[in-house]
Design goal:
The chain is 66% helix and 0% strand. The chain has 89 residues and is mostly helical. It has two domains: 39 residues; 43 residues, no CATH class. The longest helix is centred in the middle third of the chain and has 24 residues. The protein is elongated, with a radius of gyration of 18 Å. It starts with 5 loop residues before the first helix and ends in a 10-residue tail after the last helix. 3% of the residues are buried.
Length: 89
Amino acid sequence: MSDASKQIEQRYKKMLLSRTPLERLKMASRMYDSGRKLAIAGIQHGKHPLTASQLRGQIFLRMYGSDFTVEERKRIIHQIPNMQLDADR
């Protein structure tokens, strides 16, 4: 789904392709970092303080949770060191 015209899409693609692969990688990394910071702010907003391991679990759920079933998510959370769900306190 796109709300941009074909002309704008072509201009954007040309702009991206004019950058070096390293520049594009840096752009993607900065976008990921920004998205992660926004996710953390959203998780922490209005909640009780979370431990570092609970925050890691919530970040995982926010960013990748919909990619897995409930059972898969629980298994992943419990297999990764220093990551737990909020309710596991």
